[in-house]
Amino acid sequence: MNTEWMWAVERRAALHGALSDPGRLAVVDLLSRGDASPSELAGALAIPSNLLAHHVNVLVEHGLVARTRSEGDRRRTYLRLLPTDLGPVTTALPRPPRVLFVCTANSARSHLAVAVWNRASDVPAASAGTHPADAVAPGALAAAARHGLDLTGVAPRALASVRRDDDLVVTVCDRAHEETGVRADVHWSVPDPVRDGAPAAFDSAVDELDRRIRALAPRLVLT
Predict the structure, then answer these.
(1) What is the Cα–Cα distance from 96 to 210, expressed in whole angstroms?
(2) Could you report how far apart the first and last alpha carbons of the chain are, in Å?
């Protein structure tokens, strides 16, 4: 018997076992849209925090979920869904008139997200910042050139001047997500490449945005 194949079968069986509980499956379903803090999940699922902690611990132990520390308040923890052998989650979501990507400065991640999105979907996209910078970060422009993304003529803009009531709002920055008054439909905890400054940090941000966008874009369908 092929031991590698049998190991893979046992791994899949363990994952199915971890997801056999409705509470844990609900956590995975919510995290398939984007990252969330434990308190956000507990509120959405209306379950006690101790029960949620148990579900999360099981999912972490099975390699389905990972914890990351917020780049904003440094105290909050975000949970994110990891790729697994079970394949992508395919639950459909309502198709919005527009997707709005939001970060703090609107100088890197949110602009890169729009450029990546435009390659993956025909749903219009825009970007904005809660505290827009004076210009797009040079590192973002260089990364766009390396990855064949179009950032021609883009500039930071304030969220209040861009946001529409019917936007699907995706925060790609912990600080923006945690600001009072910013209602996000989806949150992606993407590390700030401007803080690091190295080309590899910008490339990593593009790769992470591409992975998440390729998972979300096909799920937005007309209802």
Answers:
(1) 19
(2) 47
Where residue 197 falls (left for φ over 0; alpha for ψ -120 to 50; beta otherwise) is left
Q: How far apart are CA 41 and CA 31, in angstroms?
A: 9
For tokens 């956000």, the residue is 40
Give me the numbers of helices (H) and strands (E) for the chain, helices first please. Answer: 10, 8
pLDDT tens figures, 124-157: 999 999 999 999 999 999 999 999 999 999 999 9
Contact assessment for residue 58 and residue 79, using Cβ atoms and an 8 Å cutoff: no
- Per the listing, tokens 């602009």 go with 111
For the chain, the maximum distance between any two Cα atoms, rounded to a whole number of angstroms, is: 63
Q: What is the pLDDT of residues 153-212, one digit of tens each?
A: 999 999 999 999 999 999 999 999 999 778 899 999 999 999 999 999 999 999 999 999
* Cα dihedral: 51, 31, 207, 154 (round 10): -120
Distance CA 211, CA 153 (A): 25
Name the residue with tokens 């500039």: 155
In the DSSP assignment, the letter for residue 106 is S
